[in-house]
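Possible regression after last week's pipeline update?

I re-ran a chain I had predicted before the update to compare outputs. Posting the input and the new output here so someone can diff against the archived version. Not blocking, just want to make sure nothing changed silently.
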Amino acid sequence: MSTESRISSRPIFAAVAVVVVLVAGGIGAVVGASGQERAVTMDLLGVVSFGMTPLSMAAFGMLVTASVLAVLFTLVSVASRYDNEVGDRA
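New output (post-update):
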């Protein structure tokens, strides 16, 4: 008698995503701290304008990274719903 157990990889992906977002925030803080011109504002598609401070650049990096990862994870979740062979391979 064989018992099958499935382990979800979602917690692993969530942990990796949190680490990646935190690293992006750290890189953004370094970029903001080492910026050449402090008084220059950064325009994002002509809509949003913010100064290049360490805090704003860290927030920007974290926001963009989290958004991209959320879109990618959502696309993978949607695609996995339509994968008919998942039950056969497991």
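Follow-up from reviewer: compared with the archived run. Residues 12-82 form one domain. Marking as no regression found.
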